[in-house]
Specification:
Order of helices and strands: EEEEEEEEEEE
Oligomer: single chain
Shape: globular
Number of strands: 11
Length: 118
């Protein structure tokens, strides 16, 4: 497993932007994919964005397409989530996660709170 630490959360007004970062205990990541999840109060954790580490193929939930961008520099850590045009419904704790093999996220950060005010 990989140790992951998120940063960059905070309070922002609707329409604003934030960039989340996910640092790792490793300089490089050799697993299958990494992703950003979020969990709002009373709701289940959901996958927001993911990136296949080899090749960089990305996935976005419909609710964030066109507003969020997942990225990393030259296939190395850290992992980023650029969030723009934020909405109150984006308010949640955001988690970084790593999948050593396809479909199984087995390393998680502790999360960073994002609050969007209307």
């Amino acid at each position: 497993q990989v140790q992951l630490t998120e940063s960059g959360g905070g309070l922002v007004q609707a329409g604003g932007s934030l960039r989340l970062s996910c640092a790792s205990s490793l300089r490089t990541f050799s697993g299958y994919a990494m992703g950003w999840f979020r969990q709002a109060p009373g709701k289940e954790r959901e996958l927001v964005a993911a990136i296949k580490w080899s090749g960089g193929t990305t996935f976005y939930a419909d609710s964030v397409k066109g507003r969020f961008t997942i990225s990393r520099d030259n296939a190395k850590m850290p992992l980023y989530l650029q969030m723009s045009n934020l909405k109150p419904e984006d308010t949640a704790v955001y988690y970084c996660a790593a999948a050593a093999i396809a479909g199984k996220y087995d390393s998680w950060g502790q999360g960073t709170q994002v609050t969007v005010s209307s």
